[in-house]
Q: What sequence folds into this?
């Protein structure tokens, strides 16, 4: 899979056309589905391009993606699509959307509500942070800020828990966020090493 | 008032009633289409879904 080696917001992918290498338009990206343990992208659910078209019952697993480009997601052919229930069973997916979930630090500070998720391209797509509408705790209430995530992200329940140190690496825009993620993860790693020593 | 005049007034009232109904129906249809568009846009809105491995393997 080839992806752009840069940071992007998950919502930038929504609506991006899915095109075969033969040039056929197969649909549009609807939801981004990721693994709760690890934060890697598992695939995408699809929708038809027209507003009043019927719902799609198929989905695109990550293994079937040829490349994620700036303007389209490329697939080799339509055979890579799988039934939606195999990728994201409706029952589990109903309450698994992290958008609008609350982000809490592990020492109990409320950092705000998730408005978007930041992904990093490279060999695959991986979740590296949340964009949140900041709460009072961050001193920038109401503004949108970016919060880095550890490399082993574990998400469950309605609240998203991040290490308290994440609040020290908050960024205002994507330009400096990659460096903030690296520094944050380095600090977590060095903290773990000190604990082990 | 002659019978002819009364008949003309009745016809004009009937014509007005007809146009009022047409306008009501058109407004109702437009409202329904607008509502359907709003519902459909909401249904098509994307999300970011976090799932466990068991869910992906169809553990239903």
A:
């Amino acid at each position: 899979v080839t992806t752009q080696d840069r940071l992007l917001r998950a919502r930038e992918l929504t609506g991006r056309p899915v095109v075969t290498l033969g040039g056929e338009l197969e649909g549009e990206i609807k939801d981004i589905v990721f693994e709760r343990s690890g934060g890697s992208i598992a695939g995408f659910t699809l929708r038809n391009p027209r507003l009043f078209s019927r719902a799609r019952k198929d989905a695109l697993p990550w293994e079937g993606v040829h490349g994620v480009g700036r303007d389209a997601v490329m697939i080799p052919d339509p055979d890579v699509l799988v039934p939606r229930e195999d990728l994201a069973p409706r029952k589990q997916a109903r309450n698994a959307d992290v958008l609008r979930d609350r982000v809490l630090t592990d020492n109990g500070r409320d950092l705000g509500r998730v408005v978007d998720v930041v992904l990093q391209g490279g060999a695959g797509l991986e979740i590296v942070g949340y964009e949140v509408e900041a709460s009072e705790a961050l001193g920038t209430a109401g503004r949108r800020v970016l919060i880095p995530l550890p490399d082993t992200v574990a998400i469950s329940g309605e609240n998203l828990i991040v290490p308290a140190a994440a609040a020290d690496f908050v960024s205002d825009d994507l330009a400096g966020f990659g460096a903030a993620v690296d520094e944050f993860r380095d600090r977590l790693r060095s903290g773990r090493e000190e604990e082990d020593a | 008032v002659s019978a002819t005049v009364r008949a003309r007034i009745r016809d004009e009232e009937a014509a007005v009633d007809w146009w009022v109904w047409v306008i009501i129906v058109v407004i109702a249809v437009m409202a329904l289409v607008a509502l359907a568009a709003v519902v459909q846009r909401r249904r098509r809105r994307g999300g970011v879904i976090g799932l466990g491995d068991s869910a992906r393997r169809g553990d239903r």
